Amino acid sequence: MTVKDEMQQRLMAAFAPQQIEIVNESHKHAGHSGDDGSGESHFRIVLRSEVLARMSRVARHRAVHAALGDLNKRVHAIALDLG
After folding, report:
1. How far is residue 83's CA from residue 79's CA, in Å, rounded to a whole number?
2. Taking the model in full, what pTM does it have?
3. Is the model's pLDDT at 79 over the cut of 70?
């Protein structure tokens, strides 16, 4: 299973989102710091959920990072667009 698939499963289970988009942007960072050569080092996540909408901005980010668990350590960067 890819890191992207793992992210999607965890976020779907935690937030039942109305919108979820996970983009692997690792190719944009090839050869840069944090690129481990796996092709799964940099991601952008757009997530819209009623659960997140009730939270403050900081609480949203904390909740998403908690849901992703160990994936936070397995990738170099995760950009979040939450609501």
Report:
1. 13
2. 0.86
3. yes
